[in-house]
Amino acid sequence: xxxxxxxxxxxxxxxxxxxxxxxxxxxxxxxxxxxxxxxxxxxxxxxxxxxxxxxxxxxxxxxxxxxxxxxxxxxxxxxxxxxxxxxxxxxxxxxxxxxxxxxxxxxxxxxxxxxxxxxxxxxxxxxxxxxxxxxxxxxxxxxxxxxxxxxxxxxxxxxxxxxxxxxxxxxxxxxxxxxxxxxxxxxxxxxxxxxxxxxxxxxxxxxxxxxxxxxxxxxxxxxxxxxxxxxxxxxxxxxxxxxxxxxxxxxxxxxxxxxxxxxxxxxxxxxxxxxxxxxxxxxxxxxxxxxxxxxxxxxxxxxxxxxxxxxxxxxxxxxxxxxxxxxxxxxxxxxxxxxxxxxxxxxxxxxxxxxxxxxxxxxxxxxxxxxxxxxxxxxxxxxxxxxxxxxxxxxxxxxxxxxxxxxxxxxxxxxxxxxxxxxxxxxxxxxxxxxxxxxxxxxxxxxxxxxxxxxxxxxxxxxxxxxxxxxxxxxxxxxxxxxxxxxxxxxxxxxxxxxxxxxxxxxxxxxxxxxxxxxxxxxxxxxxxxxxxxxxxxxxxxxxxxxxxxxxxxxxxxxxxxxxxxxxxxxxxxxxxxxxxxxxxxxxxxxxxxxxxxxxxxxxxxxxxxxxxxxxxxxxxxxxxxxxxxxxxxxxxxxxxxxxxxxxxxxxxxxxxxxxxxxxxxxxxxxxxxxxxxxxxxxxxxxxxxxxxxxxxxxxxxxxxxxxxxxxxxxxxxxxxxxxxxxxxxxxxxxxxxxxxxxxxxxxxxxxxxxxxxxxxxxxxxxxxxxxxxxxxxxxxxxxxxxxxxxxxxxxxxxxxxxxxxxxxxxxxxxxxxxxxxxxxxxxxxxxxxxxxxxxxxxxxxxxxxxxxxxxxxxxxxxxxxxxxxxxxxxxxxxxxxxxxxxxxxxxxxxxxxxxxxxxxxxxxxxxxxxxxxxxxxxxxxxxxxxxxxxxxxxxxxxxxxxxxxxxxxxxxxxxxxxxxxx
Length: 967
Fold this sequence. Notes:
With 967 residues, this protein is mainly alpha-helical.
């Protein structure tokens, strides 16, 4: 049942709106059945959107559902997460004890910065980027849906901030199978605060569109009969419909005014309708206020400016005693100008009518006074900034400071769009400000890097002090990576570094030394990204003195120097020592770049355990901070490391997890590493067609410009072509990879040994003579680098192209060397090649020994393609080996294996979903598939299967775990 206070709005809402109510009811029923839905409701002001929504929420359709209703207001339009606070405000999650609420358990706690308009507290401040808050809000909604379906209704979204709408988009992207209904209501004629975000939601989530049409003649007649006790004449109805335009709010006010005047719904009433016209609300509100004491009018204007506020603030703004504020509200409420149950005007149409006589200049003064009152009252800067944003110009000296503080608050809660809007107003009064541009660029770096680049270029042009220019250049260089403009970033950083070195004193103080080191480190990072800049970056790294690694900038520089100098493949021992130094401060929070660079270098040097340690630390920190992009990067990097040492099931799990995550992200198309990593693993799993499909589906533009990803891509493409029988194309791709690496001066033999692959392929094609030059090139590089894997591959490459006993001796040497390396799959390959060579000479007994070892190793590593080939050749050699009946776990995908392992260890579906950045529904789907494939019915049975002897448990092999402790 509806409250009596709602009857006036309901009379206009339900007349002629039965069809819309049925649509909303069907969507509520679908939400109960876990079919998530989105409804976009639109229409002009006064058409009845709000009344319709309130009526719907009070029907049986929403009974026993969690209902959150919020209405965006113009005075806070664009404030960071303002729409979210309106939605969740009724839950009381913004107080000091909010963190103790069960609704904020787990990662949902990261929603706290969005739920309060004040600065983020110490427990939630400092999280990187916008994702942590989005992630936290998602889990808050998931907690609400744990017990019952959820209905989210956000009214007047034309005034909603972009970040709140982006969260709605974020939620809907993960809504499959959730008991969720989202309803967004928009005033059609108003320009939205965030038009792009609204358009994206409408375009990508298949909403049901409800456009409220004007009332029909029959609807108008029904409303008139409900207001007038006399018979309503048809002419009166037609005139009322024409004058009101069928707008329910206008019509209800018009008919109420006429009845109050004693007008009857006849021919005279029709003439009166013509006299009043469509300005009934403006005229009636103006007439009402003119009949009241002046203090009633001033209070009405104060309410129109401040909205729902305390009597003390309304009193101060209106210039009347607090006691009169309550009296004025009573007068306004009796006149039906106040909203039912809250101290605000009933409708924005009424708000406009109250403020229309004020005039633009006086209204600006009134809003300025209101903003100053809020500031003096200690309200959060964003609340004050909401009023300042409505001013035609920022004129007072105190205003920029408030807007800056509001921008900081918005940034701390992960609302960069709001921060930028505030700072744009600051630029109006400080058009040459460098700090403001840098602050704006910092906010935009994650969501709009091209605009951040433009602002930073303006800041560089305006910065006079070299230290300021250096800090701007650092940010500029890192942002250039996001927009694939590394060469431009390198040029700017080089210019700034030269100027910095020219202007700094001969003995700079510690701050200047750290700044100089920071610029150098970012120059190395930026220069290492693309092939056209990596040569100069390597030359620079070779000239630099190694920093001790005592500071953040020094560690970052040291890590990049390690990678760049390791590219030449000359000294593995030096590489390991430098990488360890870059990570030697366990008490310090190591930077992502330092960890990724160091792990890459350690992997090249066969120090797999330490490389995995570094990536494990990176992933753990990324999980704790919900830094999803870093998490995806870390997973992809770890997949490559695991694959390189034959831990194929674990590499598959990492790569598939990364793929699933990017599938739910808006930026997923810009990624390439997860697809390349998964394709690389699938090739060893004997799925070349699927691997090539993944590679061809990569959408990242200009991939051939990049130093790391492009060569991984070429190697995977070449191996896929070989597996699919296209040897000539495979050979061309291997050679292209080699030429491109030479062009980049990336000659480390352990990174993508294309030369060994090409030699093996040429041997199969009976063109061994063509492979000699390539093989000797690789062997020379391997001798210089000196690691077991590189030396073993060199012996392997020589062995496959050398006939007779000499070739067998080389392959025997390869087996011996690789057996002592962490490269298990390469060892299996060498055993296979040696067994095949022995079989060709007629030594079946020797062949069987090595082919049996190859089959066993390959199967344990998960390299199914090699295992199958080895087993067939073993049978040909007269050997016996039980048929490879794949273990039950071989039926699982990498992601299913990971989920099963976590479930067996006792983790709940929710905690698994939180740790892997996916939804609970995704985890449920994977577990259902696991149960079906393994023939179990509950998670308690998983442990026995996962730890059955001879069945891999999804963990790295023991030799990998042990190697993590080698130092």
